[in-house]
Amino acid sequence: MAEIDSSGGGKKDGGKKRSKKMSTKIDMTPMVDLGFLLITFFMLTTTLAKPVTMQLNMPDKTDTKETSPVKLSETLTVCPDADKVYYYQGIPTEAGTVMQVTNYSATGIRKVIADLKAKVGTNFTIVIKPTKKAKYRNLIDMLDECAITNNKRYALLEIDPDTEALIKRSGK
Amino acid sequence: MPKVKAKRQSVSLDMTAMCDVAFLLLTFFMLTAKFRPEEAVTITPPSSISEKPLNSKEGLLMVSVSPEGGVYLATDDQMAREFMLERMANRYGIAVTAEMKKNFMSSEIVGYPLGAMRQILSMKPSEAKDKGLTKGIPIDSTNNELSYWVGYAKLSNPELKVAIKGDQNANYKVFADIVATLQAQNINIFQLVTGPENKPK
Q1: Domain that residue B189 falls in
Q2: Partners of B146 in the β-ladder
Q3: Do A138 and B18 touch (CB under 8 A)?
Q4: Amino acid A6: pLDDT
């Protein structure tokens, strides 16, 4: 099989005398076997994609310092759900508040955020209230959308009954 | 008509080139290999466009969430690990033998209620995992053991950074509970571990 053959044949001359020309034929099969075994091992154990992190800063609960209020018109509330995103502006209990729904694609929530951000300007704030059905992935997707649209102002809150009622009322 | 004679071909083929490639690959994988840390459960984190690599000189306290919602704790700070075990055992009146300590230190991950600690630490970490005993640390409001574990780890090394690694299919509620638990201890900065993803254009 795998072998290096560069011998000119050492046994032709006959006789018992050990010639200097030893056969250089080496059986490389075990070496190759071992090589492939190791390759397989390293291929399976290696992780090429190194994990990355996104930092999430939550407000200090012990901090009683008064924070500046944000205007309703400059705020968008998004509720990530399992496979769709609800969003609205305003107060959930008011009749005029319209709950809309979109998806996680580039033309979905990203466009909504980008359009509103262009309209509102620098004070634009996103409030994230994941629903009870939301998966961890949905939250990361949402935070990711904030990063993609270059929004530094966002808050992560628990969903409140009013918002849940609004989702129910919208029937979407 | 002359018959086309099938030539007897030599079965010996030159494998030198193949060997070369094989060993080249081998060298590559050996040099780039970074061993996967032991995991109590397989967790597939969601991906994000973030580019910050996960590393911390001060030490890392990793809270993992399995797809089923089990909570696991790991830290790369050996001192903090030892301290955690001592304090937790003390708190719940568990006498720690040398063997239990060895088993605790050799397993990267804590993922069981304190009630099962004695049983689990009396066997090897892999054995406990095979038996399905590592179901996660309780984080209910009535029995929030995670809070103690984290508290002691932070007490041992206040510089520890808290990372949360959740499976993409884990329920958001578990994440919210963990964040609430940690916030109660005034830990407000979290590193969310994700897989890399390309930035959209």
Answers
A1: 47-196
A2: none
A3: no
A4: 52
